[in-house]
Structures are given as structure tokens and as C-alpha cells.
Amino acid sequence: MAKPNTFLKIPEERVGVLIGPEGTTKKNIEKKLSVELQIDSETGGITITLAEKATDPSLLLKAKDVVTALGRGFSPEHAFRLIRDEEAILDVMDLRTAFGRSDSDIKRVKGRIIGMNGKTRGIIEELTDTNVAVYGYTVSLIGTFEQAEVAREAVQMLVRGSMHATVYRFLHRKRRDLKKKRLEIWEKPPEEK
């Protein structure tokens, strides 16, 4: 019986990041997720195959997310958050299809998302506890579903032309809401005290 596999392409200039120094990144992915990676350095084509010893078929999808994250501009440390954190997801927004903009518009929007010296991206990361990568025509996020949802909304506000101060206020408000929600989970209702 054929082993389950999947295929994807990443930009050729990101293949080196996927392989890592002396193949360490590739080996870590293969070991931690029980997969085998076949990499075509010429085209950026990656075939991910579930290893014989693998018992969980969802590892194939997790490996695909990790490879996609590396291809979309994340460092291995940030991409491996998808392995370390069970709740972490990868959310990739294509600025061309999502917002239908020209190359010059996309360049301007990417500048708004990154901000001067990376300030805006840093604020989004800090206030949502996500990792943000702006690469090519995409903006990618790694975090829990709730964190990524808030970061996505902040990015969409910037794309739509909202002022940075408005976006920062939105992020501060959402951060308070998320903290409050986490605290409520741990508090007992009054009738149980």
C-alpha cells in the first residue's frame, strides 16, 4: 500500500531555510513529525510522505503547515511553534486575491503592515502573541485561533486604510478582552464558592 503523501511548492530562495545548516531543519521536521521530505531545490517542489512508523495521519498536515510557514518567510524557530503548541495554527493571507490590488498597492500595504523599522508588525506580534511574516504577496500568522483572528483583523484594517493609532487601540482592546476571557475560565461562579 502506498504511503500517504502531499506535495507543495515553496519559493526557491526559501529552500535553504527548509533544509537548514547541514540539513538540521529538515531532519528536525522529519524526526518530530514522523515524515520524510523530498526536496527539489531547482523548482522548490516538496513531497512530504508519512513515515512507516507514523501512527497519526494528521502529522502529514502538520508537516505541510510547518513547510508552508518556512516557505512564507518564518524562521525555523517560529515555524516550529506549530509543532510545540498543539493549539497553534498557520493563517496565510494572499494580498492579491484577498484585496485585489496592483503591485504598487501591495508594496504600499506591506509597508503599512511592517511599519517603520518593523514597529507595526512588532506591535501586532506583541499584543496578539502571534508571529507575523510578510513575504512576497502574503502576510502569514502563527498563533492560536483567537490570536490569529485578532491579528488578521488588525492586518485587514491596515489594508483597508485605517490609521495606525486606530489599529493599535483595537489591538489593546482585544488584548484586554482575551486576558479577561482567560481569567474567567479559571474563576469559579459565585454559587460554587
Please explain how this structure is put together.
The chain is α+β, with helices and mostly antiparallel strands and 193 residues long. The chain has two domains: 5-84, K Homology domain, type 1 (Ribosomal Protein S8, Chain: A, domain 1), CATH 3.30.1370.10; 89-186, Ribosomal Protein S8, Chain: A, domain 1 (2-Layer Sandwich), CATH 3.30.1370. 53% of the residues lie in helices and 18% in strands. It is built from ten helices and six strands; from the N terminus they run βααββαααβαααββαα. The protein has helices spanning 15-19, 24-33, 58-71, 76-79, 81-84, 95-99, 103-114, 119-128, 145-159, 164-186, and strands at 5-9, 35-40, 45-50, 89-94, 131-135, 138-143. The strands form two sheets. Strands 1-3-2 form a three-stranded antiparallel β-sheet. Helix 8 packs parallel to helix 10 (164-186). The longest helix has 23 residues, at 164-186. The termini are far apart. The model has no long low-confidence stretch (mean pLDDT 91).
Structure in a nutshell:
The protein has 193 residues and is of the alpha+beta class. The chain has ten helices and six strands, in the order E-H-H-E-E-H-H-H-E-H-H-H-E-E-H-H.
Write a concise keyword list for the protein shown above:
10 helices; three-stranded antiparallel beta sheet; 2 domains; alpha+beta; 193 residues; Ribosomal Protein S8, Chain: A, domain 1; single chain
